[in-house]
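Need residues for this backbone.
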């Protein structure tokens, strides 16, 4: 049985692609699903969200080496949760051509493969093409709304699993753009969960390299419930 592949994508930075990827992956892993995260971002922020700064693993051979040779550094983030880092953002035509076959090959080793994607043109389009579904983080403002609608138009509504409002504050502007998108999505099958509120508790966890599944705080449990909805419908 091949892994289900999900790409986390939006054409704007700072909205929470890596946060959503890591928390979804950690939730799946906690549920006993063997999960792999890969990325098109050579900053490898996945490691910042899963290890304290002073304990971040060092690697030499990442995704590019895996695609070329079939071997490299596979980092264990948590039980059932693994990560292939990326060496740099210089992608040869050979890497671009061989990437889909590599993803297909490793699909038999995992239940889920999650892709933390940045808009790197050809690479991003390959990740989306290889994916079963796309999950989009959403910041409730006009710029991000336009970006989300562009992604829906680009990949097709049927391929979007969820659009997840993140870093939400209960302001008039954010309420307006939350409701605007809710109205747009009402006749689709796209999941549009309750927004993930901006939270000092979440910020503190991330600074420690912890996931939301490693806390019992009430504020964090509210965030867990949102991800349980997302994971339960995958």
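Answer:
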């Amino acid at each position: 049985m091949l892994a289900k592949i999900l790409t986390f994508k939006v054409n704007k930075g700072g909205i929470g692609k890596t946060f959503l990827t890591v928390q979804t992956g950690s939730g799946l892993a906690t549920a006993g699903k063997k999960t792999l995260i890969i990325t098109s971002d050579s900053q490898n922020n996945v490691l910042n969200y899963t290890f304290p700064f002073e304990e971040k693993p060092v690697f030499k051979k990442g995704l590019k080496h895996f695609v070329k040779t079939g071997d490299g550094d596979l980092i264990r983030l948590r039980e059932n949760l693994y990560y292939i880092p990326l060496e740099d953002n210089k992608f040869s035509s050979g890497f671009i051509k061989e990437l889909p076959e590599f993803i297909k090959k490793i699909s038999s080793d995992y239940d889920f493969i999650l892709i933390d994607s940045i808009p790197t043109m050809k690479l991003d389009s390959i990740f989306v093409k290889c994916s079963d579904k796309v999950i989009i983080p959403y910041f409730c403002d006009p710029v991000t709304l336009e970006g989300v609608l562009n992604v829906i138009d680009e990949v097709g509504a049927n391929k979007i699993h969820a659009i997840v409002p993140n870093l939400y504050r209960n302001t008039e502007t954010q309420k307006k753009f939350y409701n605007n998108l809710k109205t747009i999505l009402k006749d689709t099958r796209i999941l549009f969960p309750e927004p993930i509120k901006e939270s000092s508790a979440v910020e503190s966890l991330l600074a420690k390299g912890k996931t939301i599944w490693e806390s019992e705080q009430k504020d964090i449990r509210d965030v867990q419930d949102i991800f349980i909805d997302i994971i339960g419908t995958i």
